[in-house]
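F.,

This is the one I mentioned.
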C-alpha cells in the first residue's frame, strides 16, 4: 500500500493507494507546531494496512520535514517528494519552473486523465486557475481562497460574527449571517464564473473543459453558471498516484 500525502496550508489530505485505486482518504489540520510523533498519533487510527511506500506533495516546508522524519521512524521508509528529483512527465512553461507548487503540478497531471486541454479550478487556501494543454502547464491565475478571505473579513470587522459555510436560499438577505454567507459563497461562485469566462476569451477557446477540485468546490460549483465538466475532490491525490507510478515504472 502507498500512503499519499498532500500537505497544504490549511489541511493535510491523505489517501491510501492499493496499486489499483485509492481505497481510503482522510484529512487533518496543517498544524505548524506538531512534532512528527504527534502527527503520527493523529494519522495512525486511519491507517489499518501495511504501508510499503510514501509519496508527498507539499507547500509547507516545515511540515514536510516532520513527515520525512515520521516516514523514516514509523514506516522505515524514505518518502518520495514531488519537486525533489522525481519525474513528472509534465512540461512547465513558466518564468521560473521551480516556483510552481507541487500541488499545482499534481492537479494538472491528474486533470490530463480527463482532457488533453483544460482549466483546473482549485479552491483551496488560494483559489487557483491552472491552464494546461498537451501535457504542458501553460500558466495560472491565483486569488485568495474562500476560507482565508472570510477569516480576514471577520477579523477586521468587529461586528461580524463567525459563520458556517451554508448556502442561503437568496442572494439578498435581511440578517447578518445569511448576508455574509451569500456574499462569500455566491460571490466566489461569481468570481469563478468571471475568471473562467476571461480565460476562455484570452485563449480563444469558448469550449475549454473545466476540472474543479478543492475542499469547498462541491458547495460552490452548483452556484456557478459556467459549465464545470468534472468535479474531483481528490485531484491532487490522483496526481500523486500518476507520479508514483511513473517513478516506480508501474
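My design for it:
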Amino acid at each position: 500500500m502507498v500512503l499519499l500525502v498532500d500537505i497544504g496550508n490549511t489541511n493535510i489530505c491523505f489517501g491510501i493507494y492499493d496499486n489499483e485505486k485509492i481505497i481510503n482518504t482522510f484529512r487533518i489540520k496543517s498544524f505548524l507546531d506538531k512534532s512528527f510523533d504527534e502527527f503520527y498519533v493523529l494519522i495512525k487510527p486511519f491507517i489499518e494496512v501495511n504501508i510499503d511506500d510514501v509519496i508527498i506533495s507539499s507547500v509547507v516546508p516545515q511540515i514536510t520535514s516532520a513527515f520525512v522524519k515520521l516516514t523514516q521512524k514509523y514506516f522505515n521508509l524514505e518518502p518520495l517528494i514531488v519537486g525533489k528529483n522525481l519525474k513528472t512527465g509534465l512540461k512547465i512553461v513558466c518564468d521560473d519552473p521551480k516556483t510552481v507548487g507541487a500541488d499545482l503540478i499534481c492537479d494538472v497531471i491528474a486533470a490530463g486523465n480527463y482532457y488533453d486541454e483544460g482549466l483546473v479550478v482549485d479552491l483551496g487556501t488560494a483559489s487557483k486557475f491552472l491552464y494546461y494543454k498537451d501535457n504542458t502547464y501553460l500558466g495560472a491565475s491565483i486569488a485568495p481562497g474562500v476560507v482565508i478571505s472570510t477569516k480576514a473579513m471577520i477579523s477586521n470587522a468587529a461586528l461580524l460574527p463567525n459563520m458556517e459555510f451554508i448556502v442561503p436560499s437568496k442572494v439578498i438577505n435581511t440578517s447578518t449571517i445569511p448576508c455574509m454567507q451569500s456574499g462569500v459563497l455566491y460571490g466566489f461562485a461569481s468570481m469563478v464564473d468571471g475568471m473562467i469566462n476571461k480565460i476562455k476569451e484570452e485563449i480563444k477557446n469558448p469550449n475549454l473543459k473545466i476540472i474543479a477540485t478543492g475542499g469547498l468546490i462541491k458547495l460552490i460549483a452548483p452556484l456557478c453558471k459556467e459549465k464545470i465538466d468534472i468535479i474531483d475532490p481528490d485531484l491532487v491525490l490522483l496526481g500523486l498516484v500518476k507520479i508514483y507510478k511513473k517513478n516506480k515504472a508501474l
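The mean pLDDT is 94.

Talk soon.
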